[in-house]
Amino acid sequence: MDFSDITTWIFDLDNTLYPPESNLFGQIEKKMTAHLQNMLGVEKAEADQLRMHYWRDYGTTLAGLMAEHDIDPNAYLLDVHDIDFSVLRPAPDLDRAIAALPGRKIIHTNADSTYADRVLDHLGLRGIEAIHGIEEVGFHPKPDPRSYAAVMTAEGFDPSKAAMFEDDPRNLSQPARLGMRTILVGEGRLGPDAMTVGTPAGDHIQHRTHDLTAFLRSLV
After folding, report:
1. What is the distance between the alpha carbons of residues 75 and 88, in angstroms, rounded to a whole number?
2. How far apart are CA 133 and CA 174, in angstroms?
């Protein structure tokens, strides 16, 4: 497993840099459902179905709401990310493992950068040098190719010398096409509710790990 040529390390945020058992996204999903209920005047069951429908068809619930209802993304993000971050525990071992990697370390998340800052702060991860949230990529969520293109343009890195870590298998397809090294973290959830797990067939996932810290330590 040779990563000696990698000079850019790209990390997803939720359920990648912290374990899904923290269930931070569970809080966000409840907020999303409530937001849809209030905005569209529908019952909880219908709001849940719409949330998942938008995720499947547009990449994120937000992208679907923007496409079909022309909502203000900033108000939505402020609402759904108003959660309790105290469930996150500091991760000093992961912090040291990331800091030891040679090259630039960045975040590419479908969440907004303010939320990402708060997550990193609670985890105590200080070695991240740049955050590319949904607003920095023109509100084009992964797996939209425009999302990755925006990060590459902003950072100016060679994709053949980059590695991307993700918990959602579909978000690694485009990085693999671009020539990045791809690493699936965790079970390979196929949906924001993690109702279905398992890596789909295909060679776009080159490595996988259930222990990100141990994986990173093995590289240096």
Report:
1. 24
2. 17
Report the distance separating Cα 133 and Cα 130, nearest Å: 10
Percentage with pLDDT > 90 across the chain: 85
Q: The tokens of 205 are what?
A: 């996932």
SS3 state at 105: strand
Chain centre distance of CA 61: 14
Residue 3 lies in a domain: no
pTM of the complete model beyond 0.70: yes
Q: Which helix (H) or strand (E) holds 150?
A: helix 145-155
Same-domain pairing of 153 and 188 = yes
Distance in angstroms (rounded) separating the CA atoms of residues 12 and 134: 12
Contact in structure between 42 and 50 (CB atoms under 8 Å):
yes
Does 163 lie in the same domain as 54?
no
With respect to residue 127, please indicate whether it lies within any of the assigned structural domains: yes
